[in-house]
Amino acid sequence: MVQLARVYRKLEQGSFRITPQRDLVVRTFANHPGEHLSAEDVQRLIQSEARVAVGLATVYRTIELLHQLGILQRINFGDGRSRYELNQEEVHRHHHMVCIRCGQVEEFTEDLLDDLEGRILAEKGFQVVDHELKFYGICRLCGRNGGDGP
Q: Do 6 and 50 have their domain in common?
């Protein structure tokens, strides 16, 4: 995987060893693209998929290191849990729709802010380097089920 090579290069450039635990955390994110994983999710996936015990504190430390190196993007959906995904180094990140009933998170890539960024903010001399957009509402499934969720 090309993305893994990029991640390993960043670790090595920062003089950080690629320990077996770090490798497991990185591979877990790489194997679950598009998912927004908490530290607890990562630990559970490592234990169930790799059948290896890795402590939650180790997972937290590794995630924080990967975030500081720009390898992981931290996302908060207002539920008190930080979630992460591999940073795709896109010019603009994708956006999220968050269901307030079941907690489902769906991504979308349409850039709804082009006009705002390209014209209005530029006229004010403001150069946008990134943005994040989240919509909170009721997902299609919860709407059909009257709020029972998936």
A: yes
